[in-house]
Design goal:
The structure is a single chain. The protein is mainly beta. The chain has helices at residues 136-141, 177-183; strands at 2-6, 9-16, 19-27, 41-46, 52-57, 62-67, 72-73, 81-83, 89-95, 100-105, 110-115, 123-125, 129-132, 153-156, 162-167, 171-176. It has 2 domains: 1-30, no CATH class; 31-183, 7 Propeller (Methylamine Dehydrogenase, Chain H), CATH 2.130.10.10. The strands form 4 sheets. Strands 4-5-6-8-12 form a 5-stranded mixed β-sheet, with no helix packed on it. Strands 1-2-3-7 form a 4-stranded mixed β-sheet, with no helix packed on it. A hairpin with a 2-residue loop joins strand 2 and strand 3. The longest helix is centred in the last third of the chain and has 7 residues, at 177-183.
């Protein structure tokens, strides 16, 4: 359950392993992508711990990571890290308890994967691996400009073993994420 308890504050309640977990996250009133220098954004996702948020910056061509200090994100917040190497990032998901991030790249036939041994994500990071998830013909059929053709929607099964993607030309596609990460192949 997500509830707005006052302007700029969300109360989250989640049932996990039969127990309820609650958190309160405060955002500065009226925070916008310009406030944190992201320009156009496409997706955002909380880390599993809820202590970090990843924001896919389409124009910035990176994923910006912000630590939520005491579950707060204020205007003009400084990023703790950036995930570089994605032409036009769209869907973003944390995996591996926050030590991994997957991003759909709308400007390439790829999903990028970053891995960090800790969950701090300090500084700039290049992809650990990139997985080709569609053939060239499919990608080029949707390539109306440099920002199009690749995957946009991305999600992970709750058990973490399947990756699903959407794109204009491919529609819906599913992949065995465990095998991809184990072998480096899609």
């Amino acid at each position: 359950m997500i509830e707005i308890v006052e302007e700029g504050t969300l109360a989250l309640e989640q049932a996990k392993d039969g127990q309820k977990h609650a958190a309160k996250i405060e955002f500065a009133s009226g925070i916008t992508p310009e406030d944190v220098d992201l320009k156009r954004t496409e997706d955002c996702r909380f880390s599993p711990s809820g202590n970090m948020i990843a924001v896919a910056g389409f124009v910035a061509e990176s994923i910006t990571l912000f630590k939520l200090s005491y579950r707060r994100l204020s205007k003009h917040a400084e990023p703790s890290g950036r995930l570089m190497g994605s032409a036009y990032p769209h869907g973003v998901r944390f995996i591996q308890d926050g030590r991994g991030v997957l991003v759909a790249d709308a400007g390439a036939p790829l999903v990028h994967y970053w891995h960090e041994d800790t969950t701090n994500w300090q500084g700039d990071h290049q992809p650990t691996r990139s997985f080709k998830i569609m053939d060239d013909a499919t990608f080029l059929a949707g390539r109306h400009n440099a920002q199009e053709g690749g995957p946009k929607g991305l999600d992970i099964h709750p058990l973490g073993d399947f990756l699903v993607l959407t794109s204009e030309q491919q529609g819906f596609a599913a992949f065995d994420l465990s095998s991809m990460l184990a072998t480096g192949q899609s």
